[in-house]
């Protein structure tokens, strides 16, 4: 089946802004987003996620490369391309003096859709904004403003929804509501592209994940495959007494003794049902090894990038 | 053509204006009234008639032009600068609207506002001095053409400005002086010959002259020249806007 978004050789170099020189934010990106999936673009701050999304949506001009949205070139056939897209940008940009109802209805009109109060009502109710529909936006909290931005993006019934860092600075309740909404939208056939710098978020939501770092896509993979690669955790046991080597009784476990002989490190996969921690601790106890402290640590995104990049080269 | 989008922008802009409509109308009406009190009554009584028209009546078209120019520039520049300033421009840039449609929506709304103000000032003037309109069709024509042209200029300024100071600067440093020197309160024929030549460089002179002709049938310059210059200025503004959108100047990175 044809990809709903097909990006080929997309590059962006931002013009110099003295005192800063020109900046290459994207280096020849190739990416296909499948129809109806939830795609997560995972990468640290400054990786180029927003730049990529903004080029697809028409806010930033690409230096080179092409973007096809449902088969339509996003520059030459911008009307066809953009009419399919709804965007919730990273920053909160709202019309402070307008009411919720007016600003959301305006978005629908801007996309050339005839007014449909019943549909707007449904969106506002879905986003728990109905009671606030006649309030001016400046009177709303940050979380409510973000809901308004989502409502604006959905007002014209897009086939593709871009969510740029949707959970940055968002409270638990909105996060939960938002994920529920995203799943409902996906079930109704909407393709969703979201960006995040949290691995857990990509893991929780996405069908597929693209990892982007320093303007380059490092991997694009099914979430489960990728999480198997990424989702590693380490358990460190700080021992009561120094040991020379790992006792034979613990030979069945993937253990590593840190130099100094006082820290035993166990690396395990967070994605399996059985991490092996219980069995390990039991065996450690049976071997008569006592420990004074224990800690677990997840590999950081940076560590993962480093390992992915080194694996690739 | 995304007509629904043009209408949406237009209605959105107009409703923004209507929210503060009293302020928007009050200040031009008050300043016009002051002009009539000062120029028309206090000073004007010492002036002789200009071309057979009482001085108070003579300045009406110029005053309307003054308001039309300043209000068109102010409304249109603010209209596009504000979304740039708040960041809501992202939506306009990502919407399936062409540049022409954006301009029609914003400039159309700005021009409508200043035309409404122009007509209100005309009505206010009628309370103080006798006003008659010889060529109503041409009067409306010049009104609309001028409002559109200077709203386009305002749009350009709103795209160019990168701060509120710059937004105020152009109207203050360029539009107001040009209007005052453009024969608003006098006929250029009253100027010394050398200055008459200098005045001809001023585009506002042509607007005021043509507009005044539509009222009283008297003009400093031929109507055809006035119309031609106005259209030429309109074309220049359109060309600049086409360039802005082609290059994404100050709108896209
Ligand atoms: N308008 C701009 N001009 C110059 N550099 C920019 C501009 N916008 C973003 N950048 C730079 O491009 C890089 C990528 O930015 P961005 O796409 O926002 O990353 P992300 O969304 O992944 O955090 C960053 O280093 C940022 O500083
Ligand atoms: Mg970003």
Question: What would you say this structure looks like, in words?
Answer:
The complex is a heterodimer of chains A (313) and B (253). Chain A has 313 residues and is of the alpha/beta class. Chain A has ten helices and 14 strands. Chain A has two domains: 167 residues, 3-Layer(aba) Sandwich (Rossmann fold), CATH 3.40.50.300; 73 residues, Alpha-Beta Plaits. Helices cover 32% and strands 28% of the residues of chain A. In chain A, strands 6-7-8-3-9-10 form a six-stranded mixed beta sheet, sandwiched between helices. In chain A, strands 2-1-4-5 form a four-stranded antiparallel beta sheet. In chain A, a hairpin with a 5-residue loop joins strand 12 and strand 13. The two termini of chain A are 31 Å apart. Chain B has one domain. The longest helix of chain B is centred in the first third of the chain and has 32 residues. The mean pLDDT of chain B is 88. Chains A and B meet through helix 2 and helix 3 of A and helix 1 and helix 4 of B. The site of magnesium ion has 5 residues of chain A, from helix 1.
């Amino acid at each position: 089946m044809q990809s709903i978004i097909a990006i080929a050789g997309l590059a962006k170099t931002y013009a110099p802004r003295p005192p800063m020189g020109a900046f290459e934010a994207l280096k020849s990106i190739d990416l296909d987003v499948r129809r109806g999936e939830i795609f997560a673009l995972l990468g640290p701050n400054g990786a180029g996620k927003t730049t990529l999304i903004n080029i697809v949506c028409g806010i930033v001009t690409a230096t080179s490369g092409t973007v096809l949205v449902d088969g339509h070139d996003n520059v030459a056939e911008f009307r066809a391309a953009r009419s399919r897209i709804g965007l919730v940008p990273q920053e909160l940009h709202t019309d402070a003096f307008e009411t919720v109802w007016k600003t959301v209805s305006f978005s629908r009109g801007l996309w050339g859709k005839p007014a449909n109060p019943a549909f707007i009502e449904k969106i506002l109710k879905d986003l728990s904004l109905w009671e606030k529909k006649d309030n001016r936006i400046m009177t709303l909290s940050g979380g409510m403003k973000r809901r308004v931005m989502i409502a604006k993006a959905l007002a014209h019934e897009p086939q593709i929804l871009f969510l740029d860092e949707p959970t940055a600075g968002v409270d638990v309740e909105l996060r939960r509501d938002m994920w529920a909404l995203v799943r409902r939208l996906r079930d109704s056939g909407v393709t969703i592209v979201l960006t995040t710098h949290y691995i857990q978020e990509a893991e929780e939501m996405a069908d597929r994940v693209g990892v982007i770092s320093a303007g380059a896509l490092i991997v694009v993979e099914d979430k489960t495959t990728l999480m198997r690669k990424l989702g590693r955790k380490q358990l460190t046991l700080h021992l009561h007494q120094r040991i020379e080597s790992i006792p034979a009784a613990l030979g069945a476990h993937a253990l590593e003794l840190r130099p100094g002989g006082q820290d035993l490190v166990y690396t395990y996969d967070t994605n399996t049902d059985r991490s092996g921690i219980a069995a390990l601790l039991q065996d450690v106890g049976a071997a008569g090894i006592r420990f004074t402290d224990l800690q677990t640590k997840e590999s950081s995104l940076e560590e993962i990038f480093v390992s992915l990049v080194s694996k690739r080269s | 053509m995304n007509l629904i989008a043009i209408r949406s922008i237009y209605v959105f802009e107009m409703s923004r204006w209507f929210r503060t409509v009293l302020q928007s109308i009050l200040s031009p009406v008050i300043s016009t009234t002051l002009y009539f009190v000062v120029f028309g009554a206090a000073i004007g009584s010492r002036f002789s008639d200009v071309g057979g028209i009482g001085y108070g009546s003579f300045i009406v078209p110029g005053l309307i032009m003054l308001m039309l120019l300043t209000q068109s520039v102010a409304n249109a520049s603010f209209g596009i600068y504000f979304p740039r300033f708040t960041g809501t421009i992202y939506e306009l840039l990502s919407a399936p609207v062409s540049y022409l449609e954006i301009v029609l929506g914003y400039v159309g709304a700005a021009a409508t506002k200043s035309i409404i103000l122009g007509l209100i000032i005309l009505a206010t003037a009628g309370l103080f001095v006798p006003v008659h309109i010889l060529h109503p069709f041409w009067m409306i024509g010049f009104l609309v053409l001028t409002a559109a042209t200077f709203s386009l200029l305002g749009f350009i300024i709103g795209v160019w400005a990168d701060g509120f100071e710059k937004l105020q600067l152009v109207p203050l440093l360029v539009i107001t002086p040009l209007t005052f020197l453009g024969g608003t309160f006098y006929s250029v024929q009253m100027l010394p010959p050398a200055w008459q030549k200098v005045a001809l460089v001023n585009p506002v002179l042509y607007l005021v002259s043509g507009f005044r002709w539509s009222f009283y049938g008297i003009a400093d310059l031929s109507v055809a020249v006035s119309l031609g210059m106005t259209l030429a200025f309109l074309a220049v503004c359109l060309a600049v806007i086409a360039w802005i959108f082609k290059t994404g100047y100050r709108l896209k990175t």
